Amino acid sequence: MSENKEPHVAKFVYDFTEGNKDLKDLLGGKGANLAEMTNLGLPVPPGFTITTDACKVYLDSGEEPAALRDEVSAHLDALEQRMGKKLGQADDPLLVSVRSGAKFSMPGMMDTVLNIGLSDKSVQGLAAQAGDDRFAWDSYRRLIQMFGKTVLGVDGDLFEEALDKAKEAKKVTVDTDLEAADLKKLVTAFKKIVKKEAGRDFPQDAREQMDLAIHAVFDSWNTDRAKLYRRQERIPGDLGTAVNVCSMVFGNLGPDSGTGVAFTRDPASGHQGVYGDYLQNAQGEDVVAGIRNTVPLAELEQIDKKSYDQLMQIMETLENHYKDLCDIEFTIERGQLWMLQTRVGKRTAGAAFRIATQLVDQGLIDEAEALQRVTGAQLAQLMFPRFDEDAKVAQVGRGIAASPGAAVGKAVFDSYTAVKWSRSGEKVILVRRETNPDDLDGMIAAEGILTSRGGKTSHAAVVARGMGKTCVCGAEELEVDTKRRRMTVPGGHVVEEGDLISIDGSSGKVYLGEVPVVPSPVVEYFEGRMHAGANDADELVEAVHRIMAFADRKRRLRVRANADNAEDAMRARRFGAQGIGLCRTEHMFLGDRRELVERLILADTEAEREESLKALLPLQKQDFVELFSAMDGLPVTIRLLDPPLHEFLPDITELSVRVALAESRQEPHENELRLLQAVHRLHEQNPMLGLRGVRLGLVIPGLFTMQVRAIAEAAAERKNAKGDPRAEIMIPLVGTVQELEIVREEADQVVAEVEAATGVELKLSIGTMIELPRAALTAGQIAEAAEFFSFGTNDLTQTVWGFSRDDVEASFFTAYLEKGIFGVSPFETIDKDGVGSLVKLAAEAGRRTRPDLKLGVCGEHGGDPESVHFFHQVGLDYVSCSPFRIPVARLEAGRAAITANGSDHR
Q1: d(CA 775, CA 592)
Q2: 623 known member of a binding site
Q3: Yes or no: is domain 555-590+604-643+704-901 CATH 3.20.20.60?
Q4: Which class is domain 18-247?
Q5: Per residue in 329-348, pLDDT tens?
Q6: How far from 809 is each of 781, 791, 794, 822, 862, CA to CA, in Å?
Q7: Alpha-carbon distance values, 898 to 352, 410, 586, 697, 904 (Å)
Q8: 794 is in an annotated binding site
Q9: Rounded distance between C-alpha atoms, residue 529 and residue 125, angstroms
Q10: CA angle 812-427-511, nearest 5°?
């Protein structure tokens, strides 16, 4: 008999005392962490969180859940009782903020409204209670401005223009110099803007303000900028946002009040110390918006030592509790410190590696957790070149080093131009007084961001660090004029739109023109030219070395290189490659050898064909001797010739013109005519799906056997020289086992002949690329003739999707990404549902036939961090990628093993 159970009733609202940091899916990151700080006994203003579940219902149906209003009312009543005042009451009103808070941090992308509860009546009560008319009217004008823009959709520039006019009339430059009477007039002006632009009066009912603000925060989940940010950061679009309703505390109550953002460590470098920004007599949005330049957090010690000491103690508590760099927002209200938010802070790539190893040394985390705190994408950033500090280039300014990197581009002064020029192939630097969330698409398009206002916690800095984008903020000596599209630098020089500038996100320096770059110290480390020492670069190298060593100890996946010559192979080996997973022999036939291949393809007689093959054999053999020498003792997978025929034949149009001109001039053209006839005979409408790969080897007798002979003879020569060649021969574009069997039989015969002629025993394995859907679907049969599979995921993606990569990426991929059809290009990160399913199916079927079947991947996905995790999960033995991406693949292979608890998923 089954047990009767009460039906589950969804709970849509949680008090800050009810949640914890592990409920981010439900309460969002902000709500979960406010609850956690409340549980820790830290000074958090009382409030409650509306769950992401409520948001999902609202977004799906267009209406809030039926129970939500009553739940909000119950929690609001409890909040009013706790605070001893009611929302929006005429005397001493309770005011609240309504703030977004998704599971994953999306800085500035969604909406916030402060000071809800103010009205024409309650502003008087607030003024009387605070004993400060200016504060009350300043808070009211902020509410109307934020509410008008966020909730009612009024153009924010209209409010800014009215504010600028008020300052001009008063002959002041900052809003803190406006007096109560000025702000009261501004409130009147703002209300007129709302009436004209929104077609309604600013709401005087406090509950209506709050309900409309909650809906606006829900709606902000699906704004264009939020969608763009999620695509950029690969955040799922179905999570929704929580809404946090928090009793207001005020940083704009005078010089003994203020607001700030603090980091427990420097998010740019990872160094320990006092990092952050503070702004007296301000509300929180003033800091992140960058509209007034802040003072360094360290100066708070002189301004308000009591609050400073308390903040330092809380920061230590939070870092030890979260065991990570924490990003903290706080407000001081007349000497009382309040915590408004904490989260694990975004950091630069260098800071991520330093902090991870520092926390290991402090005993807060172990090596496995340290490995999970860094990513392959961050390591790739550290490998980018940096500016040559000895270069003789004019420095014209210096700001705050907000996000490191060396960025060079043409100065542009708005987001639209940044996107437009970038799509035309121009590299640009987005220059603004300060950025706001509407600048996101321009920030993504730009090489770097430069602002004349703001600090390390401004919108530009936080978003740029999250994207790994170079950023310099708060370069005050630069006068940015976005309307005239120009920037004036000290000395009077004017930088017009389109002029080339360089910005250094590691030092904060701004230069005119292009600064030369030098290799990254991390690349020099991988190349063996740099070791750990005492300076800052060496500290970073030491951190990278320690993390990489642990990743190498933990990973199951081996990492090989895609390399076609000895030079690339040797570099790959220095970068940690454990063999070559793909040597593309067609690259060996370009240049001087192209004519020999052309003669081979167009040969009319067996004698002509044999002559061409005879000429190619020693050249191929020498290629492989050099390759085996460079990778001695490590496996080298050599793919037999796989280009479409047209790559080795003359262009049909050019050849036709040559023949026509020769005929018109009555010049001899027998050879050109013969060649044109052959090209016409072999011409293909779709050469990528035509005579290439194994098909070419079957149609042109002797081509593959020549290559196999060259490989075998080179291996024998290396063995005689006491080397240890480990050749693997890979047959490309196989679609059926019969193709592989024919080629394999011929190859085995050639290898046996070379063994007999040289007296050297050769152990050459023969396998195939799985790059056609049919090959994946019949992998069990193909494994009967193959000793290894290497998944060619570039072609497999093309054939699964029906895409021609060379065409689609330029034609419609941008639209697909913008419309959310793709979160990321399937050529960049493997399509797990489609292409990935075929890889998994083929791997399992192949191993059922041949349990010792070696499995690898050699497409571009082999160096993609997310794809590496997938290849670990489906049980591949190795990934292969370009030499520069080898460290990234090594790191991610280690992280994949940790994620899977080191288990083997075969």
Answers
A1: 35
A2: no
A3: yes
A4: alpha beta
A5: 999 999 999 999 999 988 88
A6: 34, 22, 13, 12, 20
A7: 18, 43, 38, 43, 11
A8: yes
A9: 69
A10: 165
Taking the CA atoms of 898, 900, 902 and 906 in sequence, report the sign of the dihedral they define: negative
Q: How many CB atoms lie within 10 A of CB 847?
A: 19
Q: pLDDT tens digits for 785-828?
A: 999 999 999 899 999 999 877 677 667 877 787 677 887 788 88
Q: Identify whether the C-beta of residue 676 lies closer than 8 Å to the C-beta of residue 727.
A: no
Question: Is 281 known to sit in a ligand binding site?
Answer: no
Q: How many CA atoms lie within 13 A of 618 on its CB side?
A: 3
CA-closest candidate to residue 484, choices 474, 473, 497: 497
Instruction: For domain 258-347, give the fold.
Output: D-amino Acid Aminotransferase; Chain A, domain 1 (3.30.470)
In this structure, what token pair is assigned to residue 540?
Answer: 């970073």
Is 481 labeled as ligand-binding? Answer: no
The residue written with tokens 């600028």 in the block is 164
3-state secondary structure of 510: strand
Count of CB atoms within 10 A of residue 682's CB?
A: 16
Q: Which residues contact 423 (CB under 8 A, 6 or more apart)?
A: 445, 814
Length of the chain: 906
Q: What's CA 377's distance to the chain center, in Å? A: 7
Strands 336-344 and 326-333, by their bridges, are: antiparallel
* Cα angle, residue 290 at apex, residues 289 and 295 outer, rounded to 5°: 130
Return the SS3 of 386. strand
Show which residues are catalytic: 459, 858
CATH topology of domain 386-518: Glucose Oxidase; domain 1 (3.50.30)
pLDDT at 846 over 90: yes
Q: Residue 449's pLDDT band (boundaries 50, 70, 90)?
A: very high
Helix ranges restricted to H, 40-84: 52-61, 68-83
Name the 3-class secondary structure at 544: helix
Q: Who's near 768: CB < 8 A, 6+ residues apart?
A: 730, 731, 732, 734, 740, 775, 782, 786, 788, 789, 790
495-499, 643-647, 651-655, 756-760: the lowest-pLDDT one: 643-647
Q: Helix %, strand %, coil % for the chain, to 5? A: 50, 15, 35
- Sign of the C-alpha dihedral, residues 573, 577, 578, 583? negative
Q: Which of 104-118, 208-222, 513-527 has the highest mean pLDDT?
A: 208-222
Q: Do the Cβ atoms of 376 and 293 come closer than 8 Å?
A: no
Which residue blocks in 685-728 are alpha helix, DSSP H? 694-699, 703-720
Residue 97 has pLDDT above 90, yes or no: yes
The reply, when asked if residue 33 is annotated as ligand binding, is no
Identify the band that residue 231 occupies on the pLDDT scale cut at 50, 70 and 90. Answer: confident
Q: How confident is the model at residue 8 (pLDDT cuts 50, 70, 90)?
A: very low
Strand pairing report for 854-857 and 788-791: parallel
Query: Would you say 892 is a known binding-site residue?
Result: no
Contacts for 186 with CB less than 8 Å, ≥ 6 apart: 137, 141, 162, 163, 166, 178
Does 535 show up as a binding residue in the annotation? no
Is 405 within 8 Å of 505 (Cβ atoms)? yes
Residue whose entry in the numeric block shows the structure tokens 């000074």: 43
> What does the pLDDT look like over 564-596, one tens digit per residue?
889 889 999 999 999 999 998 887 876 667 777
Q: What is the per-residue pLDDT across 172-195, written as a single tens digit (0 to 9) for each? A: 988 888 999 999 999 999 999 999
Taking the CB of residue 258, how many other CB atoms lie within 10 A of it?
28
Average pLDDT over residues 280-298: 74
Helix residue ranges, H only, 84-222: 122-130, 133-150, 156-170, 180-198, 206-220
- CA 95/CA 591 separation, integer angstroms: 75
Question: Domain map of the chain by residue range?
Answer: 18-247, 258-347, 386-518, 555-590+604-643+704-901
On whether the CB atoms of residues 108 and 459 are closer than 8 A, the answer is yes
